[in-house]
Amino acid sequence: MTDIKSMTLSELKDEITAMGEKSFKAGQIYSWLHKHGAVSFDEMTNISKEFRSKLEKNYDIYTCTIEKKLVSVYDNTVKYLFRLHDGELIESVVMKYKYGYTICVSSQVGCKMGCKFCASGIAGFIRNLTASEILSQIYTAQKDLGIRISHIVMMGVGEPLDNFDNVMRFLSLISDENGLNISMRNISLSTCGVVSGIYELMEKKLQLTLSISLHAPNDEIRNQTMPVNSKWNVDTLLKACRDYTKTTSRRISFEYAMISGVNDSDECARELGRRLKGMLCHVNLIPVNSVKERDYKKSSDNRIAEFIKILEKFGINVTVRRTLGSDINASCGQLRRGEGPK
Ligand code: SAH
Fold first, then answer.
1. Catalytic: 91?
2. pTM assigned to the model
């Protein structure tokens, strides 16, 4: 059976006309799926019963159902544990900011990247998510909360550039004016540094914000915390970033988890400053969040303030990410895939 929610409107038109139906019906179906978040063909009341049953025989509507929902008592951040059609479990988080609601979506069931400070890879990697499964996280959360989500960060479980084609398809569906029509400018995609994917993404010249999980100023530290660095080291990664900013004219956001005694010394700040100086970029410091299997400690507020001072001397724009949802393990690096059926 075909995954109908991963199809673009023009692909759907081709299929529908090949079935001997009028092409405008594709627009109606597309709108049910992507504007109204329909989870079954029965909801599509402006489509004849006969055609609906034909659709049902040929297509699947992949959805995700809410297995568990946690709400932070501090800031109303909501974390969902979603069950996919094959029983696998993933997490997504909805956060409220002044400018609207942001969802942090997962792109894979588990993760292969193995960053030492992150919970997402601890239970291993199972499979990629389809475009429809990434969309479903948004549609289901919107329906459940009765809200309109305006911003998306691809910072949940998984490495988006390791699931390149499905992620690109997701981006084109979510920004389609016939669907939720979320502007690329309201979307961030985060990568641990899959350089081949950065170059591929560059060619697409999208208006989204590229975030790079850098977390170390040099190979010595990065090799210890991020296995991906053995494939693409800091120089190679930063060269790709400079190429990216040149080609797209988009500012890159570097994420840097502040880990006490690991990457937070004055010397680390100076080295980072030297390497990023003059680049069209921004540094986002994240006091490292706790992951129960690991014993990394976050840097003190003073240490973070000193680190910022040094980076600013290099003319670098720095912010500290506000931690949301810490009481429900919904912060950066705390999301994980749940246990599937088996
Ligand atoms: N795989 C992609 C998408 C995940 S985004 C990537 O690595 O960028 C999640 C962000 O949280 C990444 O920047 C990741 O490095 C960061 N992170 C992981 N564990 C963390 C932790 N314990 N504390 C703070 N940030 C963490």
1. yes
2. 0.96
